[in-house]
Every structure is written in C-alpha cells, then in structure tokens.
Amino acid sequence: MSILDLFRLDDRVAIITGGSRGLGRAMAGALADAGARVVVTSRNVGRAEAVAEELQAAHGRPCRGYGSDVRDPDQVSALVADVLAEFGQIDVLINNAGINIRKPIEELSLEEFRQVQDTNLTGVWLMCREVSSHMKSRRYGRVINFGSILSVVSMPGRTPYASSKGAVVQLTKTLALEWAPYGITANAILPGPFGTEMNRSLLDDPERYAAFVAQIPLGRWGEPEEIGGLALFLASDASSFVTGAGILIDGGWTCL
Questions:
Q1: pLDDT tens digits for 144-164?
Q2: Does the pTM exceed 0.85?
Q3: Is 161 a catalytic residue?
Q4: N or C: which end of the chain has fewer CB within 10 A?
Q5: In order of start, what are the domains of the chain with their CATH numbers?
C-alpha cells in the first residue's frame, strides 16, 4: 500500500459542523476531494445545502447539507439519526462550529459568556456524545474538535472564547482515553489567525491586523485552504496512532 493510500477517505462519511463557510468549508472540500461523503451542517440550512450541492457536483459523490444548531440536544440527536438513516454510518466528526464575542470582562453580560460556551464547548460535547455509541459499535471513528491558539495562550478581551477553547482541549484528551479501547481517536486542531468571516473585523482594521501579523513568525495570516491537509491527516488512517493531541497551526505564533 502506498503511503498516499492512507490519506484516502473512500466510502467514509464525515460530518462537519459549521461547514458552510470559512475553515469548515475548506475542510469539507478537502475531505470530499479525498473520497469522503461529506455532511455539512449549519444553522442556515440553505447555505449548508448549497455547499453540499457544490461538493457533490465537484467530486461526484453524495454530499448533504443539514440545518442544525449544535447547542440544542434535540437537533443534535435528529441530525445524527438523519445521517445514519441516509448513509448508514458516521466515520468522521469535525466539530468546527464556533462563535467569538470580544469584550473586556466588565462589559460582558452573563448571557454573552454562556452563548459562547454553549456553542464552542457544549455543542462539541453534545455532538461527541451523540456519535459515541455508533462509533463504539463499529470500533472505529475519527473525531476532530476545534480549539484555538487561545486554548494554550491568551489575550485581553477573550474570556468567553479562551475559556471555551481551553476546555475543548481537556474534553478531547478525556475522550481520547475513553474511546481508545474502541479504536476511536479524538484530537484537536488549534488554529491561529485565519482570514475567515469570524475575523472580518480584524482583517478590516489595518492597525489591528498589523499588530497580529507582528506576532506571527511567518509574517501573515493563514488562508482557509491551509487547514485542509491537517484535517485530512487527522480524519484518515494516516493518523491511526495519534489521539489526545492538540495540534497548533498558527504560523509559529505560540513559539514566541
């Protein structure tokens, strides 16, 4: 077998939450290109369906878009049940859906803090819980949770986001231990600054953008497509001995 064959995802089914734009959309394209049947989820069902149609047309294999809010346990249960009814299996779960609210702590409301936790942490926990029994029964699974560089370092004005992303890493490590006997791996991707819609306010502010770039040894922000290779590695059999890891993809930011 060629080493490249280990990166193929033929006949695998992958769910990507928040997969209709930004890093989620880039990963959806990478996994579909490697042979996966990709399920894209978003709170905006129309956007999810449009991306799935694009993937199916480009790669010639069934892809589907679903509307789902990862904060709602009933919607999460319905999503997983629908995917299993249509595809019969779930091999890969990428928990990418996330939000950010940037304010000093004294300007944040409790509701804003909870809103970030509910999406970035509780939503990940709910999705993992929902696929767990299925993956255990098949003794196979690849789960990829999205943290951030703020899982390991921080900056002012990010108490909701940094709290949620730090917790995602610990959740991932715990699941890696729980699932190891069943052949399921759990890893976290920890991205630095990428040029996505979530970061539009920073991208559009030359002074703040320059301040960020000054902290990146590679001297630039990441492009969404650059996340695809790492996601494919962790989703494929090429990463079969990798679990419980939090892998930084940040242009060297956290080296400083």
A1: 999 999 999 999 999 999 999
A2: yes
A3: yes
A4: N
A5: 3-250 (3.40.50.720)
